[in-house]
């Protein structure tokens, strides 16, 4: 008896300990990182309003004038378009994958699928892109297989153009779409689906009227993650686009690296970040009811 | 029950899991007539939920048939069965309003829009949630009792041939539960629908239903009116599941008179008892309820001598724990108008048709 009493009083004091010390100290490591990033962000903003080669000493709006030139606007539009397209495709592909993972009764299959899905996040983007080059190249795996199947030489060009880039973007970011969708699907009680079925809805109509509407917030979250990730895409378009596809990130690298135009690079960075924030806040507005409930 | 009135007829229904190693439901028969509520009562894991799910079509039987209104529905999917189901969790669609929830079944049946509107309104009136006030609310804006009313309206609006209730009161607090039980019973009688009520709560089961089916380990132990299963239990499990009971082992049969028998118990008491179907054999049990034995201060002539072990006064009833030849039994009723104190001698009588011979 006494040992149990001691044990329980011990665990109580253990639970109380953080409140007696200074819990905000726990935020210190993360706080330092966020602080550092904030300082850098302010530096980038300052840089974007500076003159070329005199970023800290002079003021100039030239960088933003350069942003709105036809070439840069086209690149921005192109980046948004590719990020959007890849987000839509990735989300559409994520749904059946997530459904399989939530529905399969075999734990081994579920684990296998999870590892397969998470693989892109573990392997370097560079390696994945080279992998795609080997598959999609003029004499790559895909064309060789197609040639064998068709019986005549096939030269499908999927590399160094937009199709290749979109393919790469979708493949490398699909985990970001799958994981929130799984979370959303797994949170739907089985009774809701059964209720729909008992009320006369066949499988298709159950999906349309119950499963999909309830999974939508998760799918939107996934789409936003993919979009946000791919607006900043650099390695994939560089390697799979072969200089024919340009994104904001590539222009920023060129301006900051080769051309030494730091203000323009900084201004484009700000555009990039604002874009991601804008989409994020737009999504909050379009999913009001359910977001409020889960929060 | 004549054939015309039978809504549900389940024959030889079985459900095995793990390749026949586990028999969740083992060869059961259940019939439900028009306007009848049948409770399936049993402890958790007795197979009652699996039975209900098979009737709804949410689970496939290993063998047996399910007939609904004369049609074999055993192989039909749930959405083709015309059976309603009120879930324990209510299963209200969280992304729809109350009105949309109730309209869902009608929408799936492709009922005309204006008819949907009037039927939804009528169904919500029936459960006392007026459309004008509650129609636009969502499930997170409703209380537990209101959620249940929505679930009920959503089920009844499609006019199913049979309604299944899966412990619909379990999520409600005691007071609300009693209130809803009365209301549910009234609505069911008013509409004359056939219903199966699955529960582990014997009190709701006996107060709500026309017939009670007691299940344990996948089998039906007894199927009868609430009075029948309480007063004439088939075996030890049934009598112990339905409230307090005193049980004594039978050692010998001394005399037989029709369905009555004078039996000698393990602790050498001779008493008359009545069997349900079988006659007593050594090893069977004799069981009587605490309120069915009478305690006397003076020997009435044929009483069993008893010694008061303890006495409690609860809910207006005395509750004596008495010792009869080494066995402790509980008694509620007495012929004396006073409290017989601890340690006093007393005599116990039990009517022959109230002490029951039951299977062990």
Features:
heterodimer, A: 295 residues, mainly alpha, MetI-like fold, disordered N terminus, B: 360 residues, alpha/beta, Rossmann fold, OB fold (Dihydrolipoamide Acetyltransferase, E2P), 2 domains, six-stranded mixed β-sheet, 9 helices, 21 strands, 24% helix, elongated
Structural summary, described in words:
The complex is a heterodimer of chains A (295) and B (360). Chain A is built from 14 helices and no strands. Chain A is mainly α. Chain A has a single domain, classed as MetI-like fold. With 360 residues, chain B is an alpha/beta fold. Chain B folds into 2 domains: 3-234, Rossmann fold (3-Layer(aba) Sandwich); 244-358, OB fold (Dihydrolipoamide Acetyltransferase, E2P) (Beta Barrel). Helices cover 24% and strands 36% of the residues of chain B. Chain B has 9 helices and 21 strands. In chain B, the strands form 4 sheets. Chain B has a 6-stranded mixed β-sheet with strand order 6-7-8-3-9-10, with helices on both faces. In chain B, strand 16 (304-314) and strand 17 form a beta hairpin. In chain B, helix 2 (98-108) packs across helix 3 and helix 2 (98-108) runs parallel beside helix 5. Chain B is elongated, with a radius of gyration of 25 Å. The mean pLDDT of chain B is 88. Chain A binds chain B through residues 189, 191-192, 194-202, 205, 209-210, 213-214, 289-290, 293, and chain B through 56-58, 77-79, 81, 83-85, 87-89, 91, 93-95, 104-105, 108-109, 138, 140, 154-155, 158.
């Amino acid at each position: 008896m006494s040992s149990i009493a001691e044990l329980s009083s011990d665990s109580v004091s253990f639970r109380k300990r953080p409140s007696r010390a200074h819990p905000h100290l726990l935020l210190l490591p993360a706080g330092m990182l966020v602080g550092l990033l904030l300082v850098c962000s302010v530096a980038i903003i300052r840089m974007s309003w500076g003159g070329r080669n005199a970023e800290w000493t002079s003021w100039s709006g030239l960088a933003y004038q350069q942003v709105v030139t036809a070439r840069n606007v086209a690149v921005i539009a192109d980046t948004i378009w590719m990020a959007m397209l890849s987000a839509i495709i990735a989300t559409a592909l994520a749904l059946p994958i997530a459904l399989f993972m939530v529905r399969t009764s075999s734990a081994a299959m579920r684990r296998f699928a999870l590892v397969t899905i998470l693989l892109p996040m573990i392997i370097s983007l560079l390696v994945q892109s080279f992998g795609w080059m080997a598959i999609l190249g003029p004499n790559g795996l895909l064309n060789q297989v197609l040639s064998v199947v068709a019986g005549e030489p096939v030269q499908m060009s999927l590399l160094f153009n937009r199709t290749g880039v979109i393919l790469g973007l979708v493949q490398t970011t699909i985990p970001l779409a799958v994981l929130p969708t799984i979370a959303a699907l797994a949170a739907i009680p089985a009774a809701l689906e059964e209720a729909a079925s008992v009320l006369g809805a066949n499988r298709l109509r159950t999906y349309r009227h119950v499963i999909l509407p309830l999974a939508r917030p998760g799918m939107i979250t996934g789409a936003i993650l993919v979009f946000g990730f791919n607006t900043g895409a650099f390695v994939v378009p560089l390697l799979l686009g072969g200089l024919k596809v340009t994104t904001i990130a590539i222009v920023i690298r060129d301006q900051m690296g080769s051309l030494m135009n730091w203000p323009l690079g900084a201004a484009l960075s700000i555009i990039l970040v604002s874009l991601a924030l804008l989409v994020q806040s737009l999504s909050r507005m379009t999913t009001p009811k359910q977001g409020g409930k889960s929060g | 029950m004549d054939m015309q009135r039978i809504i549900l007829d389940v024959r030889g229904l079985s459900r095995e899991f793990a390749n026949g190693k586990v028999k969740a439901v083992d060869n059961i028969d259940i019939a439900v007539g028009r306007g009848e509520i049948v409770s399936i009562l049993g402890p958790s894991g007795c197979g009652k939920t699996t039975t209900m799910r098979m009737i709804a079509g949410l689970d496939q039987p290993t063998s047996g048939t399910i007939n609904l209104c004369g049609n074999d529905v055993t192989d039909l999917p749930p959405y083709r069965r015309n059976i309603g189901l009120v879930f324990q969790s209510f299963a209200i669609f969280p992304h729809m309003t109350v009105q949309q929830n109730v309209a869902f079944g009608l929408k799936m049946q492709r009922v005309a829009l204006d008819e949907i509107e009037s039927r939804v309104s009528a169904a919500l009136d029936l459960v006392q949630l007026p459309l004008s006030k509650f129609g636009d609310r969502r499930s997170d804006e409703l209380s537990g009792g209101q959620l249940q009313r929505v679930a009920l309206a959503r089920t009844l609006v499609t006019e199913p041939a049979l309604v299944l209730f899966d412990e619909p009161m379990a999520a409600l607090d005691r007071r609300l539960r009693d209130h809803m039980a009365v209301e549910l019973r009234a609505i069911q009688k008013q509409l004359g629908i056939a219903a199966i009520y699955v529960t582990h709560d014997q009190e709701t089961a006996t107060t709500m239903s026309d017939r009670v089916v007691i299940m344990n380990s996948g089998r039906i132990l007894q199927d009868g009116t609430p009075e029948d299963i309480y007063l004439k239990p088939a075996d030890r499990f049934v009598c112990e599941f339905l409230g307090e009971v005193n049980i004594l082992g039978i050692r010998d049969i001394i005399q037989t008179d029709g369905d009555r028998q004078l039996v000698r118990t393990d602790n050498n008491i001779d008493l008359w008892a009545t069997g349900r179907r079988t006659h007593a054999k050594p090893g069977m049990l004799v069981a009587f309820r605490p309120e069915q034995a009478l305690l006397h201060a003076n020997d009435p002539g044929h009483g069993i001598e008893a010694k008061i072990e303890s006495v409690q006064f609860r809910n207006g009833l005395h509750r004596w724990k008495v010792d009869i030849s080494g066995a402790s039994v509980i008694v509620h009723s007495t012929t004396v108008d006073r409290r017989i104190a601890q340690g006093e001698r007393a005599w116990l009588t039990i009517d022959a048709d109230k002490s029951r011979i039951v299977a062990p």
